[in-house]
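Lab notebook page, bench 4
Experiment: in silico fold of construct C2
Operator: M.H.
Input chain length: 900 residues
Purpose: comparison with the prior construct
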Amino acid sequence: MSAATVKGIVKDASGDPMIEATVRLLAAKDSSFVKGATTNVSGGFTFGNVNRGKYIMAVSYIGYETAYRDFSIESGTKTLDPVVMKESSVMLKEATVTAVKTEITVKEDTIEYNADSYKTQPNAVMEDLLKKLPGVEVDSEGGITAGGKKVTKILVDGKEFFSDDPKVASQNLPVNMIDKLQVVDRKSDLARLTGVDDGEEETVINLTVKPGMKNGYFGVVNAGYGTDDHYKADFNVNRFWNSNQITFLGNFNNINQKGFTDSNGNRFNRFGGGRGITTTQAFGMNFNVGKSDDSFRVGGDLMYSHTDESSRTSRERQYLFTDSTSFYNSQSGSRDKGHNVQGNFRMKWEIDSFSTLEFRPSFRFNYNKSTSADSSMTYAGDANRSQVTKSFNIGDSDGNSYEVSGDIWFNHKFRSRPGRSFSVSVNYSLSDTREKEDSYSYNKFFLLNDSIDEYDQYTDNHTWNNQLGARLTWTEPIGDVLNGNFFTVSYRANYRWNNADKMVYDRELEELVMNDTLSNRFRNDFFNQRIQVGFKKVNKMYNLDLGIGVMPAMSKSRDLIIEERNIPERWVWNLAPYLRYRYKMGKTRSVNLDYRGNTSQPSIKQLQPVADVSNPLRIVVGNPNLDPSFTHNLRVRFQDFNADAQRSIMAMASARVTRNSIVSKTTFNSETGGQITTYENVNGNWSADVFSMISFPFRNKAWSFNANVYASYNQTIGFNNGTRNRSGALNLRPNFSISFRPDNFDFTIRPTYSWQTTHNTVSKNSNKNVQTYGGMFDASWYAPFGLVLNSTLRFSGTEGYAAGYDEKQWMWNASIAYQFLKGKAATFTIAGYDLLQQRKNISRSVTANYIDDTRYNSLTRYFMATFSYRFNTFGKGNQPSDRNERRGPGGPGGFGGRRR
């Protein structure tokens, strides 16, 4: 008898996906239960291995009427029409209800934010929305964290958008297209395809597009010019149809808005460190097209980018030793230019109801040119601040690289044995990087009779890698598949060939003479394997996934120039247990428990026994006796959503303990100011943190309250000038916000406070109790005739640093905008940034070894006039709602309308 797959999606009356709705498959002849499932974050559900015949599908959800669908199936894949749920009317009789969309909903591994609950400026981008969301943080470089975890991908309606670069979406996609923003903790793509845990997890953000914007063209074009010749221009054009997507975007500016992740810093010897003033040009496209039943889809992205970064930095550092101190001052300037072209593609083919094939090729080309100059002085800690070392360095480098890779995944479910599955995946990558560098270094040692070391060198670097990997998995049901018991086994192997040539030449009488001591030609091999067995239990109340992995690893290294640098072949074996447990207390309440053990091998550089003296003041010597480190990770998470009170609660705690941590051990030479660094294994490193969040509206639905608390403790074992030191840092960070959002006004106040205490067993001078406090006030007024006024005021201050280094600053940004033309499609804005000109460009870092203060060039006060034009082809009556549209007393429909 042939079997088939049944797919469908569940929505509410407004078109929003219904998450965790219960879907039951019943036999038409007697309504007996056949299969059951719950909908995912996109409202979708799938039943596999369904026999030919007639069925009834029943969909239920608290507060909604149960929906029924009759259908029959022969073979292949059956995609049902969307099921639209209707709210239950039992409690609505003799009452007038004003409906308000829930601001935050917490369900299992998902935190869902209703985008319309957070008003933003006209033509704002996703990043502006993220900065308003409780529990979500965006750092100065555009990196996104949610609940303390880094966001690695952004999806649009469940489909990848520019692969593994969240900044492209967050800094380019317009806010007005977003209906819901969902923060999801999930397994890797491969683990979700095969159902077998591979030890990798990720936190992603899924954007659901407003129902009215899923068929047609829409986009926005912005152009602005300001004081000090600052400018910006960007465009975003989207075409959505029948679950297909294509996006074109461009970005040009000199106000540090890259709009993407610059990958050159990971490949070349860049000097700026990501700070300073950056000019950017970028073009990109993203697409995802295929059949409406998702049986075959092709997607991918292409991007070209160019950056020009100019950075100036000054640093004052005080080294803290057990018996003395020293001071280091430096000035540096750099310029980094880069060109990048990259492409990532995806093909997914559901061959039939039982077999799926995926292919993911990618490529990348990079070019980089960097120049730098720096000078520094090291002083002794005596009363006269005696001079120790004076240094001057200049450098110039040109580099290019390319990388190609491909992954093939195949998964098969057995028709004859429901629950049994097999998968195989193969991946290959090739990379090649070449960089040529000219450098000059001058060092004067005042305590060694004013002796001088001077280097004028040319370096030719060439690194190329090949990597081949494969993974096999097998899942076998234990007994009747309906009991939900499964045995899993997997094997993964990965072999990497790493080749690195560093040829250093001294300039002598206009000739280049090879320097054997500083040159090397390494041939490194790495072979990692993982053999894993596990048990899975799936039922209505809980899911359990546990097992253990055995991880043998081999490494070896050979230097073609100096044999003493060779590292013979070495094998290391580790055990890596894992546990994932989820207990469902109800439709919207659950608790998760996760444990994972993993190992980390020392790098070749950390094992290399011969000194690297390419920088004579920063010598590095490896330790061939290092053992791999092993980390225990434990996490507990509770989530609850009360639909009646519209209250969301989430609490999470995690802990990490590492055995045989690999740490650096640095000793200082008081006569030269130089350092010698090696590596050692230590025990005693551990950390723990707690994060909790609550959100609910007041009785007056225009008011809402959000609060979250984060606390962490980190214990780190290190060395202070060769002496073992234990450092403990406790951090408390409570935050809350109150918002008032009537029809034409938006007001939010968010106080911030954090307290950190740091204690060291050796260097008492670096013990600190530091408080950081401040807050954010944001207010906007939306006039009925298109005028929008906005003011954002932020204050931050610190207490607990040394005299002269505590900071207090006010950051005030304000704008006035006028929206005009049909549908308010055009906007003219005048904005001022850092109106009080108090932006600080100073950062401080305190460790057990030193206190470091850094000052760098940055953008300060400027004004900019911007014109924006928003367009779409949705037609009259199909326009998506505007979150900033002024509503009448009863809502968009006037009196008696429904306020969303």
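Observations: The CA atoms of residues 85 and 674 lie 71 Å apart. The helical segments are 126-130, 166-170, 189-194, 604-607.
Next step: discuss at group meeting.
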